[in-house]
Amino acid sequence: MAMNKADETEIELKFLLGQVIDAKAVTELLQQQNFSFEQSAGKLKNSYFDTPALDLARNDIGLRIRSGENLYEQTVKTAGRVLSGLHQRPEYNLALDNRETLPKLQLFPSAIWPDGVDIAQIQQALTAIFTTDFYRTTWKIAGKHGVVIELVLDSGTIESQGRQAAIAEFELELFSGKGAPAMEMLFELANLLLGSFKLRPGVKSKAARGYALWRGAPKSKPEAFSRQGLLVSALADRESFYAHLDFALGQLQLGVEYCFLSSSPKRLSAVSEPLLFLERLFSLAPESLVVAKEELAMQFKQVVGLYSALELQFDRAGCDGKNGVGDDCLLLEFCYEQTFNRLQLALLKLLIDREFLPDGI
Questions:
Q1: What is the DSSP track for 266-292?
Q2: What is the phi/psi pair of residue 93, to 5°?
Q3: Does the predicted TM-score (pTM) go above 0.70?
Q4: Stretch (H or E) spanning 168
Q5: CATH 1.20.120 residue ranges in the chain?
Q6: Mean pLDDT computed over 269-278
Q7: How does residue 356 score in pLDDT terms, banded at 50, 70 and 90?
Q8: CATH class of the domain whose range is 230-360
Q9: Which residue has the higher pLDDT, 94 or 10?
Q10: CATH top-level class of 3-215
Q11: How confident is the model at residue 220 (pLDDT cuts 50, 70, 90)?
């Protein structure tokens, strides 16, 4: 039985939709930009498995069986990370006999499992935790230097324990290629999508959302963020600067997510505190730390201006967003604002250039 994808790290950007998007509009956009691509579409059904004690989830492991036209495979994704919206996880796929209703863990390489994980014991306890059913349109886009980006548009549902959540998202995955050409094309396509559709970064995977449904988890709020006292440590050296950038950008995106899940009085500050910290951080950072500082300064000026206008709209409407009262549409529209999300993408690009590209280290 052949391994379809062995010891590869999945690298993808995810964007959640704020509007209904027809696949035809995406195809026309790519054609207008003279991209070379192959297009396909079909339904996908995924069943995710774990033990009742969630032994796999506790080790940051995802396990599923995916079925579609001429497709029946098992996949395991081991511990990875999310770098301010960029998802990275080692992924292993194996073709599976379609008569099998449970994944067979012994078929995966033994080296992928963390120490202390008893695969035989977990196999005996496996049960379906949640399912995802969606229609996927795929554009496999070819670029220079052997780079191929897979753009997908997913629409469907996640189901668990009688609860449902909608799937409406773009994913941009690096299918082949590496280094500067690969990252440049990935971010070029991301900027094109942000400039053409109503989107926002997606920080939670389908699997993470499925587990939350299974647990019946309450709407979580991001860790409290305070700007006080952070600037001195953030500007201490290069390592501190990028560590604080990663943390604050991640908190900003969690704050945006929180705005869509809650009417809590703290939802506005969950966005404003990390945003204003980042603006101040970049205004004080020496040019030796930041590439294209003037361009970023202009983006920050535009976004902070939009945020100030949002607060003014709350005041004029006689509703205090900080007190959780009033028209949430104002706040949610800001979260989908193109300028705001392109700024987040530019900050992520700084982190990526430093971490993955030789000339960024």
A1: THHHHHHHHHHHHHHHHHHS-TTT-TT
A2: -120, 140
A3: yes
A4: strand 163-176
A5: 230-360
A6: 92
A7: low
A8: mainly alpha
A9: 94
A10: mainly beta
A11: low
